[in-house]
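To start, one record:
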Amino acid sequence: MSRSLPGRDRRAVRHPAPVGAVRLGTPRHVAVIGGGIAGLAAATVLAEHGSDVTLYESSDRLGGRVASWPLPGRRTMSRGFHAFFRQYYNLRALLKRTDPTLRHLVPVSDYPLQRPDGMRDSFTNLPRTPPWSVLEFVRQSDSFTLRSLAKVDVKAAMELLRVHFPGTYDDYDGESAAAFLDRLRFPPAARDLALEVFARSFFADPSDFAAGELVAMFHTYFLGSAEGLLFDVPDDDYDTCLWAPLGEHLAALGVTVRTGTPVSGLSVDDDGVRVTAAHESLAVDAVVLAADPRAARALVAGLADEPGLAVWKDGVAATYNAPPFVVVRLWLGGHVHGDRPAFLGTAGYGPLDNVSVLERFEEGAATWSRAHRGSVVELHAYACAAEVATDPQAATAVVARLLDELHRVYPETAQLQVLEQEVLVRDDCTLIGPEAWRRRPGVTTPSPRLVLAGDWVRCDYPVALMERAATTGFMAANELLAGWGAAGQDIWTVPVRGLLRPTPHPHRHLPPD
């Protein structure tokens, strides 16, 4: 493999950083609001190129929506399982700052997808290179039969091979993921196992989720990349092996990291930026707004209507959050069967979307498991009813149903005592709906002093979730640095064109269509 590539895919595309000086010639001070992946990515690149950075994080830990925190008894909790796909080139580039060989990311051998009728699909032992990866998956899967495949709309299926980003996002304006799946006439079982499960990983019901996002995801993970269909996971809790080391790295670069400090006010004008936090006001040259979607909307709403900002502010205000989700972590007084996978996706089990067995990969959970002779199991329910976020009784009902479904999926757990239980309910994730893609706010804004970053921000590349957060963080830093005559961070993506729209110049930047 060429050392210049971020992975094994020789068709990966490099989007070069703007040309400029290695470091800033004139000192600049930037405030980064948000200590999640997007904010950490932006702060890292800015500091590496000579900017003074003050990073604000409202919680007492870095990592944002991928944070973890300690519990009594040497246990930990987080917002749930995250898959670190090998296509996440920019997130991995960020993590390599403190873990150059990514030794803390360990492979998950499989993540089977299961339905109550016994149908189960696997992603192991498949070729990595498209289209052979998908063809072999279809050949092995019981979800596909000759009769069901004959019903597939070939014209719609060909759209998956003719993607061209960013144009593909625009092509599906107004169409939901569910409507696209209906139009595709995909076999129902395959729809549940191979597509809808992944749509729900965006914390949304497919009827509320953008078709363009689904198509981009299908391209990124299945038909457009030779990195394979499996993923890695951290070998310990997120704080221990990812974010605490990165926080130390930032401190060594001179970044002022202020955790437990929510930003309450923001002003931007031609003279500069002022950030208000903890009853203090800080004047800076620019700001990267990388807060979660709801907090970002609130800060933007408080901006004065400077020339050009009013219409843009309306666009930010029009973004909205996904329905609430529920995470239940159980410390059981006995082990689940030894052949249970580290991660199981489910369809048809009520609100249960997946089950993780944490001692299979996380060292802290494995230590607890050895000491207590039990398993640490995590359950997820995405796209819950809105009242789950505000009504404790509704949330309790979801938790009870999740436990019942766990007992259906892994019957042995019905006989195991629950020694400890933690429940987390949140509704702070973004929802990319079927509205016009170009109306979603991007990294740049009407003010050169204000840039956005996060998984809720429009990005023309085929990236999503954690990778969109890292990518827009790099892009935000690059935008500011370019304005000051400094270079930034190269960005890598999977091919931006489908197999039937071959990339003419691999490894080089492609202008948008």
Residues 113-223 form one domain. DSSP finds 15 helices and 22 strands in the chain. The two ends are 30 Å apart (CA to CA). The longest helix spans residues 465-483.
